[in-house]
Amino acid sequence: MRSLGVLLAIFLAACPAWAQGIGDADGAAATAWDEIGQLDYEVGIVYFVDGEGRLLKTARVSQGMARGLYYVPWELVWTKLLPPDVERVFLVHNHPGGNWRLSQEDIELGRFWAEWAQRRGITFDLIAVAPSGRYTSLREEGLILPGEVELSPFDLYLYLLEPSLAMIVEGLSSVLGARLDVHSTLFPI
Q1: Are 117 and 123 in contact (CB under 8 A)?
Q2: Dihedral class, residue 31 (left if φ above 0, else alpha if ψ from -120 to 50, else beta)
Q3: Dist CA 67 CA 155 (whole Å)
Q4: Cα separation of 44 and 53, whole Å?
Q5: DSSP-derived 3-state class of residue 120
Q6: For residues 22 and 53, is the Cβ–Cβ distance under 8 A?
Q7: Element of type H or E holding 46
Q8: 111: which DSSP letter?
Q9: Core vs surface per residue 133-148: b (16+ CB within 10 A) or e
């Protein structure tokens, strides 16, 4: 029985985020950095966690671009996709170029989804991590202004429809074996 306890302790020490929990931006950034911090293209990892920091769901997205990423958190649009008890959502993405600061596009997108999530009783944070391990959190930087973001039809187009179309076109491109150029007209994060 003692060896079973030792094995369990070793497993928990080396296990993924779902067993360790993600309580804040620092934990989300550190967990994601292990997977995406050293990549030469952008990847987003989304952690859906409960009030205790238990990981309930993880989503990953990438189009393989060195600069940019299209993502729509559909769980926030259709809340039936959310696991029960979700209280926080951390969208962590890497900046392969080395800049650990959030871009203006990151800030605008993060503010939009933070407002959308807040209206559903969920806390949202957008985090950028660099190869150095440094990160920036929209919340920690005080860049989320609850109630000050207007969810306009243009924002819905910009943050919901446009990235959805880009992901569909990207998917069709890979299935058809052709490369359709959507990157020059659409604005990824």
Answers
A1: yes
A2: alpha
A3: 21
A4: 19
A5: coil
A6: yes
A7: strand 44-49
A8: H
A9: ebbbbbbeeebbeeee
